[in-house]
């Protein structure tokens, strides 16, 4: 707690100095500050519910927090007249879906950790309220600038930490920001990898891939092109130093597909041309990385077999959970707690890894925790988000956020098959950020 408080004070000092340099043109820094706090998981704990799994009941936190965006939202409500902030508009319908799933989860008889669902709901609503207030407080240009500035700061920090460890072997930097970082930076002794300000290389790889998609979107959208290209290159180095196999593969697909969709925004999304010029080149690059490049040993000669087997075991367990409550699932942010209660699962649970970690598959977590209803919403959301973003790019509207949203969706789809990091507290708010503003500035289209 003291360590987090010190980091928070340092961040405040950094942004205060930043504010002094900016002076008049500084409103965007409020957004930048909140975004910057996300990977550090800054929040004030109010209540810690007791469950079998003290470390977590699902992929998200089970603690009740007073969040940074909620504190800043209270400040904005005081200083500004925010009429209509508690109303929902047509471009915010997706929020209704999530609220409906939260309500179903709270009433779910299979939910063994209702307060963990409430903890998720508090974080979700805190960020949605903050984004709505920021939408009223800042113009589109300031919002893009706020996100861009925050990502620059975070990516410089992640790159610096990645150089220090593992490249220079300065291991103490892995313990500065997150408890247990040193252990996970070596993947419990199997191989070293950069973790930045996160707790695992997977989270750093995922964040940096999302940031790379944003900077590539900025480059293609003619926003700070030179700086965007520089930070894209910096992020590639950081991702390489995570030694995260999934991040390598995901980044290749993100960059290739974002570029192809941008260049063919007015053409059909699914066609022989899209496969030939969008997916095939990405597959060839992935093949080179896995089998021919200097990085191929990471895929073929390390702990890959054990990791694949562990994930398959997790997926089998996930399908067993789904069978027990296929329609409404077992409750948002509760599936790990459910495993420790469900005696019938013992036949497929044969090691501690399965009962102490979230399922390493984001899509399967959504299926097990929200059932067919939630998973159907998830698939509809993924498809419609890409389609609408592509339509906006075609008419040159909200290009940066639309392209960034496409990159984000591609990242979540691919990365989500092997990890739960997209639903972690240090990543999920970034997903909400791009989703909110890509849809908020979207033109209306008929499907």
Give a written overview of the molecule.
The protein is mainly alpha-helical and 447 residues long. It is 65% helix and 2% strand. Helix 17 (399-415) runs antiparallel to helix 18.
Short synopsis of the structure:
By secondary structure, the protein is mainly alpha-helical.
Low-confidence stretches: none
* Shape estimate: globular
**Class computed from helices, strands and strand pairing:** mainly alpha
Could you give the count of β-strands?
2
Q: How far is the N terminus from the C terminus?
A: 49 Å
Q: What would the average pLDDT be, to the nearest integer?
A: 89
Biggest β-sheet strands, sense, barrel: 2 strands, antiparallel
Strands of the biggest beta sheet: in what spatial order? 1-2
**Count of DSSP H/I helices:** 18
Strand content: under 5%
Keywords:
single chain; 447 residues; mainly alpha; 2 strands
Give the SSE map.
Layout: H1 2-22, H2 29-37, E1 43-47, E2 64-67, H3 68-79, H4 93-107, H5 114-137, H6 140-167, H7 181-185, H8 201-220, H9 225-242, H10 245-263, H11 272-292, H12 296-300, H13 304-324, H14 335-339, H15 352-356, H16 362-394, H17 399-415, H18 428-440
Helix pairs in contact: 2-6, 3-5, 4-5, 4-16, 5-18, 6-8, 6-9, 8-9, 8-10, 8-17, 10-11, 10-17, 13-16, 16-17, 17-18
């Amino acid at each position: 707690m003291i360590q987090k408080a010190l980091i928070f004070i340092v961040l405040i000092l950094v942004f205060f100095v930043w504010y002094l340099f900016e002076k008049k043109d500084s409103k965007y820094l409020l957004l930048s500050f909140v975004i910057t706090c996300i990977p550090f998981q800054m929040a004030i704990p109010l209540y810690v519910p007791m469950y079998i799994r003290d470390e977590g009941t699902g992929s998200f936190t089970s603690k009740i927090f007073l969040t940074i965006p909620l504190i800043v939202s209270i400040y904005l409500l005081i200083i500004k007249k925010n009429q209509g902030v508690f109303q929902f508009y047509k471009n915010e319908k997706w929020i209704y879906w999530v609220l409906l799933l939260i309500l179903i989860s709270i009433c779910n008889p299979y939910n063994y950790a209702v307060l963990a669902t409430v903890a998720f709901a508090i974080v979700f609503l805190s960020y949605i309220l903050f984004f709505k207030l920021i939408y009223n407080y800042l113009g589109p240009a300031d919002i893009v600038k706020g996100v861009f500035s925050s990502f620059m700061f975070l990516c410089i920090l992640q790159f610096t930490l990645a150089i220090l460890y593992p490249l220079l072997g300065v291991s103490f930097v892995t313990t500065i920001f997150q408890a247990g970082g040193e252990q996970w930076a070596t993947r419990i002794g199997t191989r070293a990898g950069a973790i930045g300000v996160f707790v695992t290389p997977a989270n750093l790889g995922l964040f940096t891939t999302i940031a790379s998609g944003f900077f590539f979107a900025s480059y293609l959208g003619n926003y700070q092109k030179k700086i965007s290209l520089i930070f894209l290159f910096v992020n590639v180095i950081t991702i390489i130093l995570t030694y995260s196999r999934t991040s390598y593969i995901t980044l290749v697909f993100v960059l290739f597909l974002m570029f192809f969709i941008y260049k063919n925004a007015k053409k059909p999304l699914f066609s022989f041309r899209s496969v030939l010029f969008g997916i095939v080149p990405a597959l060839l690059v992935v093949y080179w990385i896995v089998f021919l490049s200097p990085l191929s040993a990471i895929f073929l000669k390390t702990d890959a077999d054990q990791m694949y087997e562990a994930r398959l075991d997790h997926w089998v367990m996930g399908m067993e959970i789904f069978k027990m409550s296929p329609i409404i699932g077992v409750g948002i942010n509760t599936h790990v707690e459910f495993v420790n209660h469900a005696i019938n699962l013992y036949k497929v649970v044969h090691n501690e890894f399965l009962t102490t970690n979230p399922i390493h598959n984001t899509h399967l977590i959504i299926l097990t925790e929200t059932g067919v209803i939630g998973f159907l919403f998830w698939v509809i959301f993924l498809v419609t988000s890409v389609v609408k973003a592509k339509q906006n790019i075609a008419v040159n509207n909200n290009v940066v956020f639309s392209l960034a949203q496409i990159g984000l969706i591609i990242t979540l789809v691919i990365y989500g098959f092997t990890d739960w990091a997209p639903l972690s507290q240090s990543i999920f708010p970034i997903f909400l950020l791009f989703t909110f503003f890509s849809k908020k500035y979207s033109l209306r289209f008929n499907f």
